[in-house]
Amino acid sequence: MSPNKTNPLDWMNEDPFFKKKLSLKALEEQWKLNPNQIDGYVEKVIREATAATSSSFMNETSSLSFEHIDTHNHLITKIRIPNGIHPESIWAQINRTQIKLTGLGKDHSEIIQLPVPVIPDQSRGTYKQGSLQFRMPKMSAGRFKDIDIRYL
After folding, report:
1. Which end of the chain is more exposed for a tag (fewer CB within 10 A), N or C?
2. Are 57 and 65 in contact, with CB atoms under 8 Å apart?
3. pTM of the full predicted structure?
C-alpha cells in the first residue's frame, strides 16, 4: 500500500478477491456519509419509536399529560402535574386497573386507566420537578395448574 492514498478502501482495489466480488462504488458512497446526516437519522428513528410507544398508552379522556412504561415486572406511570398545583395537595389512590388523583384544583379529580393489572399494596409514588411517577409491580398471570380432562 502506498502512503499517499486518501481513501482507506483503496486497498480493496488492489486485492483481486475483492475486486471481483465487491461493489466498491456502494462502499465508497457509504464511506462519504456526513456524520450530521447519521445523527439526524438516528434521532428521527428514536423519536418515531418513542412517540409510537408513548402514544399507544396515552389516554385521550384525561386532561393530564401522562405516559405508561411497561417493563417486564413493573408498570411505571409518569404524570406531568400542571403549574399552579401544589404537589402536597395531591392525593393518589391506586387499584388494580386505575390511578385516581384528587386535589388537582377545585373539586377536580382524574382517573387514569392502567393498561395492565398491578398490585396496589406494593406500589410506590414519587414527585420530582413537576412530575409524579408511580412504580407499580404488575400482577403475574399466576402459575399453571394441572387440570384433569374427562374423556367422554
Report:
1. C
2. no
3. 0.55
